[in-house]
Amino acid sequence: MTGPLLEATGLVKDFPVRGGVFGRAVAKVSAVADVDLQLFEGETLGVVGESGCGKSTLGRLLLRLVEPTAGTVTFDGVDLTALSKKDLRARRRDLQIVFQDPYRSLNPRRTVEQSMVEGPMYYGVSRDDALGRARRLMELVRLDPQALQRFPHEFSGGQRQRICIARALAMEPEVLIADEAVSALDVSVQKQVLELLDNIRARLNLAVLFITHDLRVAAQICDQVAVMHQGRLVEFGATAQVLGQPRHAYTQSLLAAAPGRNWDFAHAASSAPYT
């Protein structure tokens, strides 16, 4: 495939601001404002910016977990924003998301096995095949397949996030959105999960949209970086270029405020430690 696998064009999401006695909409705020974005097969695209800039809303818009106010999202040549709910459900398996909090992402009353086979079985995979896939994915994320019989509370945070990644991959998606997927983890565990994500991307030729506020994380895993500020993309390009020689004043301010001022973002990006 030569063109983008996932593309957003003129994407807008407005939320009402309510006030008065009756809580009527008195104004609006644009969480995402006229965003154009392209994600290609096999690449990791980082969306970076401070909290509240619209990163997570953008990720949900791309999956149509929330409805856009305007604009289109095209996946593999199909306009997702024009699909009926029934037709959209058929596409859900191709686009999966891993959320920030591994402690809230898994149902505490369901075993890991139950959580992992549910999605594939919904799309017609037999239980035996879904279970076989779950076992292979547990090995892929470096967990014992025997642990499928355990409950989420029996795992550490890092292990739970690996399970969440495996559960998303059980759907055999073409696009994986990681929404602050390592921000709740300790630094040492972050490194392990980042390495795992990048290895899986390369092995399965996934397209990954990596949403993060941590520029150091973006420098280590992303091929391209899009900088988001107040709902808009203000800078975009190769990671080494954007983080090593930023042009926009907002990007420069982000880098100046990043922990560890001696961090060499350009070198971290160009050295590609997880490739």
Structure characterization notes:
With 275 residues, this protein is of the alpha/beta class. The chain has a domain at 103-172. The chain is built from 10 helices and 10 strands. The chain has helices spanning 55-62, 85-92, 112-122, 127-140, 157-169, 187-204, 215-221, 239-244, 249-257, 265-271; strands spanning 6-19, 24-39, 44-48, 70-75, 78-79, 95-98, 175-179, 207-212, 224-229, 232-238. The strands form 2 sheets. It has a 6-stranded mixed β-sheet with strand order 6-7-8-3-9-10, sandwiched between helices. α4 (127-140) crosses α5 and α5 (157-169) runs parallel beside α6. The model has no long low-confidence stretch (mean pLDDT 89).
Write a short abstract of this structure:
The chain has 275 residues and is α/β, with parallel strands linked by helices. The protein has ten helices and ten strands. A six-stranded mixed β-sheet has the order 6-7-8-3-9-10, with helices on both faces. Strands 2-1-4-5 form a four-stranded antiparallel β-sheet.
Order of helices and strands: EEEHEEHEHHHEHEHEEHHH
* Share in β-strands: 25-35%
What is the average of the pLDDT values? 89
Order of strands in the sheet with most strands: 6-7-8-3-9-10
SS-based class: alpha/beta
From the alpha carbons, calculate the radius of gyration and give it in angstroms: 19 Å
Low-confidence stretches: none
Q: Main β-sheet, in a few words?
A: 6 strands, mixed
Number of helices: 10
Q: What distance separates the N and C termini?
A: 22 Å
Portion in helices: 25-40%
Shape: globular
